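ESCALATION

Customer reports they have been waiting on this structure for their group meeting. Please prioritize. Original submission:
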Amino acid sequence: MNYQTKQYDTIDIIFQAKFDSNFNPFTNLTFEAIIEKDGVFLQNSFGVYNGETDFLLRLSFCEAGLYTYKILSNLSDLDGQIGEISVIENNAKHGPLALNSNNKTKLYYKDGSPYQLYAFECDWLFAIDYHEKTNQLQQLIDYFSDNHVNQIIMNVYANNLRFGGEAWILDENMDPAHNLGDDESIFPFKGSNSNPDFTALNVDFFKHLDKVIRLLDDKNIISHLMIYVWNKQVNWPEAYSVLDDMYFDYVVKRYAAFSNIFWDVSKEALAYGKCDANYIIDRTLRLKKMDPYKRLITVHDYGFCKKYPDLVDVISIQTWALGIYEETRKLTALYPNKPVFNLEHGGYEEGQYQVFTGHYTNAKTCLKRNYEIMFAGAYSAYYWQPLSWCITVMPWLATPQPHFDYYKNMIDLFTTYDYSQLYPINKFGKFSGGGYLLANKENTLVLGYIPKENYCIGIGYIEHYKGIGTYCFFNTITGEYTQKTKLDGKQRKIISPFEDDTIIIIDMRE
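Update from on-call: job pushed to the front of the queue and completed.
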């Protein structure tokens, strides 16, 4: 068979095969494809059972060209099948997430473009529109895209929150339709979460998850996919068992081809006594071995990342410190060769329902913490309580509405002034104070964060000033810029014109 697809897009090839009733297509199946480009071996890719007599081989390619596949399988109907795939260029996508050996603390796309991470956690995204086709899933992903969200932190599956424990709150006035937790009809295995049949997987569950991840991919949004989660009341198979491997392997084989996948082995990986570090090591190594596309990997547990940094591509941290800037500076200094991502900084923006408050709920306070993390050289994430977990209120229907606009302004700023080329500095000129500073390596572009409580930011005489340069202000709440003012190189106090937190942008680039 001959097929055509675009660079970075996925192509699903469906095969038909019969098998005996005593053959378990989830545990007994061998199904891989030898992939060659222009007659030269490229990789082995894996297929999965897709229900009834269907078998799915999902592929993607980072380069245009002519590819061939040959199937190796223990099912005679599959074994030996061959095909050809023509891949054309795709200028609408940048490819999967990648690291850059010349700029190791920043994230990039495969094509070399900088990736300005703006993540939102939406753990129950897999459950939206699972039963009813309300189009809310499409609308929500469109909403994320319109607000320039480019990463969703999400679970493959979660069951429920531990209401009444761990500070989770079930609002007694909540509309039950907004609670997607504890739905016994949604489960990745056969049976249900309360009465599981771990011997087989629920293919329909994964077909819906396909739709979710594909819709994200269509909008160039990364799926930060957490394969396991320990604090959402999921009934999992016994660790290391054949059935545990069956689930894990199936997820990797089915989703690795999506160019928008960013693997996270487990949410709260070591926090709840479900497993030890050896298990997470085993899963991480298994993932690396099975994923032919080598998507980036992290583990949602700083204790693990701290002890085994060489096993992950991105260091995940969770610090709620009041002095988040200073704490993040210390942590980023420990990892000069890896990006650092604060997945949870204790700020969970309030909404019409309380769900989990953390330490900070005010929208502007949460935003400030995100800026402080980024000015310390790391990446951060946004949480809004009525959507980040099983309570799912569509943002455009909420009262009050969340402040995705704040973060849209933030990521637009760091796209205009490329965050991948900005690094924390302690001072600018002979002295500086009253704010946090980012600068390019030439020290000709400097961004200074001025908290609203500060009267001004102090900038001393700039030794390398050459008579060329301007400064302007950026309002972190409205996204407004002031007109550019000529820089004279001798400013000592620069006063913000805004009442809210402000960023001064000093640009002396020629």
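Sent to customer with the following note: The chain has three domains: 2-88, 97-420, 422-507.
Escalation resolved.
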